[in-house]
């Protein structure tokens, strides 16, 4: 490693030039990366709801639709609007009641269910807009934006496609604010904790490169979710800032014994790389554990963040040393008083009262451990959006005027007889909460001669060897009531057609609930095992990984238990990924403290004194890192109007503080009490010939 460190120091100008040049393709890669705003598309493709979505898209062109409620407009104006909508690029068709009637057929002849679908009792008219591409496609998004400009104050657009476009617009609007808040908050903490006034600015300048590279290389993944896009910068900033702090502190330490700054930096790079390697591996492993999720959103977040951490490590030992040496004159000239000092009284208190501290912590921990399993979770992601968005308001209008709380698309074999289809429709209509069922048999059985019906009427319900039934439900997606309703509907459909499927927002959300429940357990187990193994190999110990993982997991349980007592309801994404993020991001603090504890034991200090010194020497780094992570994420939680992003950032910020306090107060007590066990379960715990177990 020494030759590499020397090369970086000697060729620092070339390193900085290469770093800047690499930002150019990164910008193009970031701009060219497709952002997916539809979380439901991350469901496993083999699920019935996803199979049904494929049928709706390929056969019926109904997977991407928007519903427009037209209130108090004349028929002529409505038809003119319909014609204008049909001319929008990306719109495949605009369906209205007139498409199901011939010119000579009065609307009163429509079957009651069909009539109530297109005409409300309040006089509103419904238009169904079909798109050429899926809801989250860029062309569909652009079409949605154009449609909104065509609508007047008496028209309201709703449905998943409309809400997804609102989400895109909101994320694009708030993203710069997230970055500004995170950077500003981090700078405040760094200014308070460091005496060198220029260093925080250099740190932020250095972070531009790995963050830029991370976003640029996302193009090789094909796409990333909007959640990943919104959180990646903030998380990468908070998680990898540790590495910059470690390098600076080591550089300052080396300068005390080596007056030559270049030689001191070579030594700092060598020692920093070895110290952050284990820390970064645990963080990377924690993020990669999310790839075990069946919901591929986890793989999306996990790969991007693991890549970001790796790029952060590389930048810390290449770009940051070059920046620190280049600006070393400005660094030495501008200093100020620090406000986050090393802890001195706290370590003494902790080592003197190790047993009482652990006893009090265990007593406080138990209720949170029980509560975290009972924390309520919601799965209807649209509830996390501001309710004044046009798509949300339009969807609410659909509920008010047409009773469309949720729509189920039921797809069965078109070879079923007319009688079977009528019986199927009748049974579905009899399910509790279903207030309307539309099908081809609604026309045929409604007394209208088939020759009077236009071809578009049949194509709306029969295509690709399948027949579609549309069942409108009064149950809200993601609720237990709708889960039971879908279970009943599925039993009915499978009796008529074993290959029949139910899709739509409700069915996909119901599948999401079941998948998320399994993912929560699999991700937790995978992340704990991965981090456990890396710590075990790094320390060559069986007991140390148990202590460190237990310390962080207790902090996670406290964090996840707090919402139960505060009455908060968490988005399902938070319940799955927060544990992995908190474990991977803050286990570094535990590794740093434990490594310093071992160094002091090797120096001949007894366990209590070694723990005191370790806490005192590591406290400033841990406090700075933890408060930086807290500030970055908490500031975003205050700025975001999206409850999903806000909830995730609140949990992460609170988790950073809880983990920080657990590592500084609880882990030292654990190390002191269990040190005899550590000696027996760790290969060469210290390099001294004999061990000192003085309490």
Number of helices: 25
> Could you tell me the mean pLDDT?
87
Radius of gyration: 30 Å
Q: What proportion of the residues is helical, as a percent range?
A: 55-70%
Largest sheet: 5 strands, antiparallel
Beta-strand content bin: 5-15%
Structural notes for this entry:
This protein is α+β, with helices and mostly antiparallel strands and 695 residues long. 67% of the residues lie in helices and 8% in strands. The protein contains 25 helices and 13 strands. It has helices at 2-10, 12-32, 48-60, 75-86, 112-118, 138-150, 160-193, 199-217, 226-257, 261-288, 297-316, 319-326, 328-333, 345-352, 354-372, 390-402, 418-429, 440-444, 455-461, 480-496, 505-539, 543-566, 572-602, 607-639, 643-681, and strands at residues 34-36, 65-70, 91-95, 125-131, 155-158, 223-225, 377-378, 406-413, 434-438, 462-463, 466-473, 501-503, 570-571. Strands 8, 9, 10, 11 and 12 form a five-stranded antiparallel β-sheet that branches. Strand 10 (462-463) and strand 11 form a beta hairpin. The radius of gyration is 30 Å and the shape is elongated. Residues 689-695 have low confidence and may be disordered.
Furnish the topology, listing elements before pairings.
Elements lengths: L1 H9 L1 H21 L1 E3 L11 H13 L4 E6 L4 H12 L4 E5 L16 H7 L6 E7 L6 H13 L4 E4 L1 H34 L5 H19 L5 E3 H32 L3 H28 L8 H20 L2 H8 L1 H6 L11 H8 L1 H19 L4 E2 L11 H13 L3 E8 L4 H12 L4 E5 L1 H5 L10 H7 E2 L2 E8 L6 H17 L4 E3 L1 H35 L3 H24 L3 E2 H31 L4 H33 L3 H39 L14
Parallel strand pairs: 1-6, 7-13
Antiparallel strand pairs: 2-4, 2-5, 3-4, 8-11, 8-12, 9-11, 10-11
Helix pairs in contact: 1-10, 2-8, 2-12, 6-7, 7-8, 7-9, 7-16, 7-24, 8-9, 8-11, 8-12, 9-10, 9-11, 9-24, 10-11, 10-21, 10-23, 14-24, 14-25, 15-22, 15-25, 17-20, 21-22, 21-23, 22-23, 22-25, 23-24, 23-25, 24-25
